[in-house]
Amino acid sequence: MSEPLIRPATQADIGALVALEASFPEEDRFDRRTWRRLLSAHASILVCDTPRDGLLAAAVMLYRKSAGIARLYSLTVAPEARGKGLARALLAACEADATERGAHAVRLEVRASNSSATRLYEAADYRVIATLESYYPDGEAALRMEKSLERAL
Ligand SMILES: CC(C)(COP(=O)(O)OP(=O)(O)OC[C@H]1O[C@@H](n2cnc3c(N)ncnc32)[C@H](O)[C@@H]1OP(=O)(O)O)[C@@H](O)C(=O)NCCC(=O)NCCS
After folding, report:
1. Ligand 1 center to residue 40 CA distance, Å?
2. Are residues 83 and 119 in contact, defined by beta-carbon separation less than 8 angstroms?
3. pLDDT in the model for residue 1
4. For a substitution probing ligand 1, which of 71, 115, 116, 146 has the most ligand atoms within 8 Å of its CB?
């Protein structure tokens, strides 16, 4: 894998963003219209791009105007690029983006069965703050996790 660069997504990335989620069940994917809407909303889309392999990972952060809590809405690494630290790097870039926008914490929901994602978040100091029963359309529970961005004095 060539050296990845983390940068904000643009309209030109929409095709690659749709392709990144191609292996997901249909109900878990964003279509082109959703990606376009996210690009123009109170959101940041950060992508991990490589000169040779193209777009390998993406993360979406949502920001409500007055909320100090940013929401990690989506995080995906291409199957062939997993296990190489891309999610960890993208998550750190999302946290830096949230800090820059004045957020004091990041919150997310993850499927209770998604052990690779929950381990990623735990290793990055996210803690479970609630279990949301029947959160997903298929009835699975979500873990709500949160990380404070404020450094201890
Ligand atoms: C979850 C996901 C984003 C991880 O991406 P990744 O680039 O492979 O993760 P990284 O290589 O950055 O791993 C960082 C840490 O996460 C944890 N982790 C990642 N994949 C793991 C796995 N398969 N099993 C156990 N722990 C895992 C580990 O703690 C790892 O640190 P380590 O390598 O020092 O052990 C990726 O598997 C993915 O896109 N999955 C499908 C979409 C998804 O589930 N997104 C999250 C929805 S909330």
Report:
1. 28
2. no
3. 63
4. 116
- pLDDT attached to residue 94: 97
- Ligand 1, residues at Cβ distance < 6 Å: 75-77, 82-88, 110, 114, 116-117, 119-120, 123
Atom of ligand 1 nearest to the CA of 120: 16
Question: How far does residue 116's CA lie from ligand 1's centre (Å)?
Answer: 5
State both tokens at 150.
């404020």
Mean residue pLDDT of the chain comes to 93
pLDDT in tens, 39-98: 988 999 999 999 898 999 999 999 987 779 999 999 999 999 999 999 999 999 999 999
pLDDT the model gives residue 41 = 85
Measuring CA to CA, how many Å separate 24 from each of 21, 43, 108, 136?
5, 22, 19, 15
Please tell me the class of the 5-148 domain: alpha beta
Distance CA 134, CA 91 (A): 26
Which amino acid appears at position 117 of this protein?
A
